[in-house]
Each structure stands twice: as structure tokens, then as C-alpha cells.
Amino acid sequence: MTEQDRDKQKAAVVAEIVRSKGFKTVACTNVGLNPRTFRQWMATDAEFRQAVEDAVEIARDYRDDMAEKKLFENVEAGDVTSIIFYCKTRLKNRGYTEKVLPQPQPKQALAQPTLPEPQIVDGEKIAASIQKKITAKKTYIVKLLKKQNKYTPELSMQVKITAQLLVRTEILAEQIFDANHKPVNMELSREGNERESISPKEKLYLDLLTQSQKALRALGMNTDSRERKTDNDGFADFINQFKDEEE
Question: Which residues are CB-neighbours of 205 under 8 A, at least 6 positions away?
Fold first, then answer.
């Protein structure tokens, strides 16, 4: 099998996973791919593995949506079992639960105020928060592309890269637009003369803007800005709109 044929078969099985509602073995059978070969690709090809995981995630979201839709249809039809299940899972705050809810405790005398303990920066929590933002951004991009009939499973890696760039750009933007940030550094030469230089963060931010813009265009997004404004102005407006809609 040539490399080109192998790539075509990989793309076919990824697309079939979505059509097969996330069942990988069924997808392999439908495209005539040996499950052993599929497992080997998963172990040796990181890009293929990511595409498969994204396809499974998309299919799982679809199954969840369909199950929730069918459940609510049963509720609307008056099915008692479905109504009870819905109330127990979705209306616990209204008392539809068999568990004993905690009772409010009597008020105690106010304790003397104490100084808050210094907060310790947790690297793992920060990393988890950033990863959560990337996942949310990736999900929104896929949703937007689907709405425009532009999404295919083959775009999963490009979507991930775009989401990472956008999150990095937003994080850096918060730093450089802070009131304490200095866009220009003042340095003294050996002769004692003052010399100004642009902050490295400013340069990195501009570079991330350019990379993000290219990534969005690769997905077929951010194309109208070229007709009305300069690239940077159009992209800035697009980023703001993208962020507002996502929130």
C-alpha cells in the first residue's frame, strides 16, 4: 500500500467513525480496514490518533444530543417514567430527589476576622484551566464551521492548532493591555546613553496575531476583513466578535 493510499484510508475511517456514531470497530468493518492495522496506526501516528479522538468526541456529542432529545419527546408525550427520570436528574433543586437535602445550620457568632492566607500559584491548576479554554475554543470553532457547512474530520488537527493559537493570543493580550505593562523598554548603553526597545511581549503578541490570522484563513474563516479593512483591524474585530459569541 502506497503512502497516498494509506492516507486516504485513514481519512476514510475517521469520516466513517463519525457516521458510525463513534464506534471504531464498526467503522473499520465498513471501510474494510483490519482492526489490527487500525490499532497500529493509533499507536504510531499521533495526528491520526488525534483525528480519531476528535471524531469520537463529535459522535459522542451527537449521541448525547439525540438521547436528550428523545427523552424530552417522551416527557412531552406524557411518559411517566421519563418524567420521573427528568425530575430526579434535572430538578433536584426543586425537591425532586430521594436524598436528604442538607438543612440550614443555625447562625453562629461571628468570628474575629483573620488575614487571608497567601495564595500559592498551582501550576497544574493553571495548565488545566488553559487546556479547558483550548477545548472550549476548539468546540466552538467546530460548531461554527458546521454551521457554515465547512467542517470535515480532516480539519480536526487544524482546528486544534487554531484553538491553541487563539487562547495564547488572548492570554498574552491580557498581559500587554494591563495598566502596568510597558510596551517600550528603556535601556542604558555602555556609554550611558538611553536606548528604547520594543517589549518582547509586544513582538510575540503581533507574531501570534499573524499566526492566528493565517490559521483562521486556513479554515476558511476571517475572509471578509480583506474587503473592508486592513488585515490587522479586521482580525482584531473578528477576535472580539469570536470571544463575545463564545461567552
Answer: 169, 172, 173, 176
Let me know if 4 is exposed, middle or buried by CB neighbors in 10 A (0-12, 13-18, 19+). Answer: exposed
The cell numbers describing 219, all together, are: 479554515
Half-sphere exposure of 144 (CA within 13 A, CB side): 18
Amino acid, single-letter form, for residue 188: L
pLDDT in tens, the chain (247 residues): 788 888 899 999 999 999 999 899 999 999 999 999 999 999 999 999 999 999 999 989 988 888 888 888 888 888 888 888 877 777 777 777 766 656 666 666 666 666 666 655 567 778 888 888 899 988 988 888 888 888 888 888 888 898 888 888 888 788 877 777 777 776 766 666 777 777 787 778 788 888 888 888 888 776 554 444 444 555 555 556 555 555 5
Asked whether the beta carbons of 13 and 33 are under 8 A apart, the reply is: yes
Amino acid identity for residue 166 in this structure = L
